[in-house]
Hints:
It is a single chain. By secondary structure, this protein is mainly α. The protein has helices spanning about 1-15, 25-40, 55-65, 70-90, 115-125, 135-140, 140-155, 160-165, 195-205, 205-210, 230-245, 255-265, 270-280, 285, 290-305; strands at about 175-180, 185-190. It has 15 helices and two strands. The protein is elongated.
Amino acid sequence: xxxxxxxxxxxxxxLTIERGMAKNTILAYRRDLVLYLTFLDSQKIEKTSAITENxxxxxxxxxxxxxxxxxxxxxxxxxxxxxxxxxxxxxNLVEKDVSATVKPPKSPKRLxxxxxxxxxxxxxRAAGPEPDEVSALAGDPIRVRDRAILELLYATGARVSELxxxxxxxxxxxEIVRLFGKGSKERLVPVGKYAQNALQSYxxxxxxxxxxLSKGTPAVFLNQRGTxxxxxxxxxxxxxxALNAKIAKEVSPHTFxxxxxxxxxxxxxDVRVVQELLGxxxxxxxxxxxLVTVDALREIYATAHPRAQR
Length: 310
C-alpha cells in the first residue's frame, strides 16, 4: 500500500504547488482519495499498476451501494479519482488511464411535480375573485390581477419569465397569446375561456389605473407602482394563494406548467402537441410527463381492477 499512498501524496502536492488549489479543495481531494485507497486495500490492491478499469467501476458502485452516496457526491469522488489516474499517466507511472471511461452514475430522473385539477381550482379561487363577481372586483383590484396571472399560467403552461415579459402586443386576440421562450423562440398558445375572462377583467378594470402610476410600459402585468411585475412577485402571489387554499405541498410557477402538461396528456392530448405548447425543442423533454400519467394510470388500475391486487 506504500506506493499507492506515496503516489496520492505526490498528486496532492502537485495540486497544491503546481496547480495552486485552495487548502479546502486539497483537503476534500485527500478525503475522497483516502476513501479510494481504503476500497483498494479491501480488494488487496497494493500497487497502482494492479488497478484495472473494472476496479474503478466497482468503486463507483461501492460508493452508491455500500456508502450510500447520492449521485452528486459520487461524481465529486470520482473526479478526484480520475484526476489521480490522469496524474499517474502524465508522470509515466502507468501505461494507461484506467479511469478514463468510468462515468459517474446518472442522477435519477426527477419527475415533474404536478398537482390535481381540484388543487389548481382551489389555488385559482384563493388568488382572486371570479371575473363576474363585480363587488369583489371593486373591493380588491390587485387580486383581480393575481387571479388573471394564475389562470393564464395554467391555461398556457407558460414559464414565469415568459409571463412577466409578455407585452400587450403579445395578446394576439382573446383566444391566442404570443410567448417568447428560451433563445427568444416565439410560439403562439391558445387561451381557454376561463383565462380569457380573467385576463379581460384585469385589462379592463385594473390595468388602466395601474398604468397611470408610471410613464407607461407595454407589460401586460403591472405592479402597484405601474411598472412590469417581477418573477419574484409572481412567486409570492402563488405562495400566498397556496397558503390561503391550505395546500401543504410546495407550489411554484413551474407547478402550473407541470400541471398544464400532465392534465393535457391525461385528457388524451398528443405528446407532440404538448411539446409545441410548452415550447420544448425536443419531444424527449416532454415525454417525461408521460411517465407521470403512466404512474397515475397504474395507481388507478391497482385500486380499481378486481384482480389487480396480489
